[in-house]
Amino acid sequence: MTDYDTDVLVSADWVEAHLDEFQFDDPDYRLVEIESPSPPEGDFPSLYDEGHIPGAIGLNWAEDLSDETQRDILKKDDFEDLVGEVGISEDSTVVFYGDGHIPNWFAVFAYWEFKYYGHEDARVLDGGKDYWVENDHPLTEDEPDFPAQEYTARGPFESIRAYKDDVDKAREAGLPMVDVRSPEEFSGELIAPPELDETAQRGGHIPGASNVPVPTNLREDGRFLPPEELEELYADAGIEGEESVVTYCRVGERSAIAWFALSELLEYEDVHNYDGSWTEWGNLIRAPIATGEE
C-alpha cells in the first residue's frame, strides 16, 4: 500500500478499492474527514460540504474533537459518545484524512486522539484530501447516515502523551525534543501561523529543542517521505530511535504528524506528543524559553 511495513498509512488507491465497504451500514470500515478550524474572521464554507470522499463522516477538529472550555481533548465519555454516534465501533477500521496547506494537519491529531483512547485499527490516508483530489479520485456531497454504535474506549493510554512535567523531566535529562513549527515560530519571530490566532504571550521555543518543520516530513505531493529519507531527517536532528522523544508545536496538532512519523511509521518505541505545546509553555510564568535559530 505504501513504502512502509505497516498498515497505518494507506494509499489513495487502497481507499478507492474499499469505497463500497466505507459506505456500508456495517461498521467494519469507516472513513473520517477532519476539517480544519475556520479562520477567526469571515464566513468560510465547509470543505466537507463542498465535496468529500464517498462514505466519509465529517468531523471538525475544534468543534467535535476538542473540549474548548478546558482547551483539552475530549474527555473519555464525550469521546465514546461522539464516536459511537457517528457509527464507529471498537472493531472498525477507521481511516482519517484532512485538508489544509499541510496535508492531514488535523487528521493525524484525530488519529493520535483515537490511539490515546485505545482504538486498535486506525489509519491515515497518505497525502490527504489534496492528493486524493489532484489524482482524480471521486468526491460526493452526499452525507452518510450510519447506525449509531455502542462504543467503549480501552484507554486512555498515557504513554503516547506528554504533559508539562514530562517536558521538564526531558529537559533535565537532555532528551531530544522536536519542535515542528515553522522556523519563524521557532525563532520567536512569529507566535503562531499568520492564519491562526496567536495563543501565547511569548515567542520562541523550549530550550534544547530541535526544529524539524512538519512539511519536511512530506514529499512535494503531500505524502510522507520514504522510510530511509524520514530516518535521515530525524537522525540529522539527533534522533536515532533509541531515546525517549517529545514532539510539540502550537497546540499539538502539527506535532502529531511528527509523532506519527516517528512512532507509527519508523516504529520508534518511546515517542510522546506534548499537546499543550507552545500555547501552554509560552504562557507559563517563569518557564524558560530560547529565541533565535538555536
Word description of this protein:
The chain is of the alpha/beta class. It has 2 domains: 9-156, Oxidized Rhodanese, domain 1 (3-Layer(aba) Sandwich); 159-281, Oxidized Rhodanese, domain 1 (3-Layer(aba) Sandwich). Helix content is 30%, strand content 15%. The protein has a 5-stranded parallel β-sheet with strand order 1-7-6-2-3, sandwiched between helices. A 5-stranded parallel β-sheet has the order 8-12-11-9-10. A two-stranded antiparallel ribbon has the order 4-5. Strand 2 (29-35), helix 3 (47-50) and strand 3 (56-60) form a beta-alpha-beta unit. Helix 6 crosses helix 11. The radius of gyration is 18 Å and the shape is globular. It starts with 8 loop residues before the first strand and ends in a 13-residue tail after the last helix.
Key features?
alpha/beta; 12 strands; 15% strand; Oxidized Rhodanese, domain 1; 2 domains; 294 residues
Termini gap: 38 Å
Estimate the global geometry from the Cα principal axes: globular
Quote the beta fraction. 5-15%
| Count of discrete alpha- or pi-helical segments spanning 4 or more residues | 12
User: What is the residue-mean pLDDT, rounded to a whole number?
Assistant: 93
According to DSSP, the number of beta strands is: 12
Computed structural class: alpha/beta
CATH topology of the largest domain: Oxidized Rhodanese, domain 1
Low-confidence stretches: none
Instruction: State the helicity in percent bands.
Output: 25-40%
- How large is the radius of gyration? 18 Å
